[in-house]
Automatic annotation (TrEMBL):
The lineage of its organism: Bacteria, Bacillati, Actinomycetota, Actinomycetes, Streptosporangiales. The chain crosses the membrane at residues 34-50, 56-77, 84-102, 108-129, 136-154, 185-205, 236-260, 272-298, 310-333. It is found in: Cell membrane. Pfam families: BPD_transp_2. It is a multi-pass membrane protein. This is Branched-chain amino acid ABC transporter permease. The keyword Hydrolase does not apply.
Length: 346
């Protein structure tokens, strides 16, 4: 072996320009993958209503409505470690609050949203005060009771709520300058509300309140030793959760144009809880994936077996949880990490 050859043995081969550019691209994507994913998602969301038929636009609008409701439930269950089987009741408060304001007082549709959200917040605060002393199954039973007595209560006050017949309302008309059809206008209203509520939830979870909620979820005793006021933050979690559900209920009324007590039965609360567990607890992507699940899986179950859609729905939940114990958001994160590892090695 010559001296020149011996000097080169064991030295790494210099990376070429193409490999360097690829590595820089991977590092840039890794550093900003969250922002890139959100930007891509918003771009697709703004593009879809111009390409789909009205019924499919309506379905996507309802996905956004459910995503806002699940965002509140995720705050309570995924981040605060509490449980609620009565989330549909707060959804109904927002829906009926909006319907009554439009029907009785001829209020503008957009003006009803903050009022309905505030009413749900106040109700969540009222129910959160006694609920903070309960845990586990006891808390689940109390929240379930809220959903159980809501339907007969709505039917009883017929002069206000319309009783069993419900209330039929007009939908918000698109301004002429937008050039949008009614279904597209409703979609973009729901999208705007979803974006605002997701930003609000993100800011809340990154604040001291969010850190306190995580401490309560992980270990209440340790959180109390560190100075976290358990009762205050648990009650606040109920109130915030109810507020998001009330906002979703308000948009639901705009989109459907009709409310009735039977639309807000216990089944809705259980379906919402299943949706956030399947979507992914403790993740901001979980509510959106859960909204897709809540909207499309029941209809798929109905198509698979019209005689027993509940059985098919339950089996699909079991299958999803078997494949993705951390929910669909956890599965997506795991796939993203695997993809980035492959790109780095390549």
């Amino acid at each position: 072996m010559t001296a020149e050859k011996s000097e080169t043995v064991g030295k790494p081969v210099a990376a070429g320009p193409a490999a360097g550019r690829r590595g820089a691209l991977v590092r840039a994507v890794t550093a900003h993958r969250g922002r890139l994913a959100v930007a891509a998602l918003l771009a697709v969301a703004c593009y879809l209503p111009f390409q789909l038929v009205p019924f499919h636009v309506f379905q996507l609008t309802m996905v956004l409505v459910y995503a806002v409701a699940l965002l509140g439930l995720n705050l309570l269950v995924g981040h605060a470690g509490q449980i609620s089987l009565g989330h549909g009741a707060f959804f109904a408060v927002g829906a009926y609050g909006t319907a009554i304001m439009i029907d009785r007082w001829d209020a503008p549709h957009l003006a009803t949203l903050p009022v309905a959200a505030a009413a749900a917040f106040a109700l969540g605060l009222a129910f959160g005060l006694p609920a903070v002393r309960l845990h586990g199954l006891y808390l689940a039973l109390v929240t379930l009771a809220i959903a159980v007595f809501l339907v007969p209560l709505l039917k009883r006050f017929e002069s206000v709520t319309g009783g069993s017949m419900g209330l039929t309302l007009g939908k918000p008309a698109p301004p002429a300058w937008t050039g949008l059809a009614e279904d597209q206008w409703l979609y973009f209203l729901a999208l705007a509300v979803a974006v605002v509520t997701f930003l609000l939830a993100r800011g809340l979870l990154r604040s001291r309140v969010g850190r306190a909620l995580h401490a309560v979820r992980d270990d209440e005793a340790a959180a109390e030793v560190m100075g976290v006021r358990l009762s205050f933050h648990k009650t606040l979690a109920f109130a915030w959760s109810a507020m998001f559900a009330g906002a979703a209920g308000s948009v639901y009324t705009w989109v459907i144009g009709f409310v009735s007590p039977d639309s807000f039965s216990v089944t809705l609360s259980i379906t919402l809880l299943a949706g956030i567990v399947v979507g992914g607890l403790g993740s901001l992507a979980g509510p959106l994936l859960g909204g897709l699940f809540v909207m499309f899986v029941p209809s798929i179950s109905q198509d698979v077996n019209e005689a027993a859609p509940g059985v098919v729905f339950g089996l699909l939940i079991i299958a999803v949880m078997y494949v993705a114990p951390a929910g669909l958001a956890g599965l997506a994160a795991r796939l993203a990490r695997s993809t980035m590892r492959i790109l780095r090695k390549g």
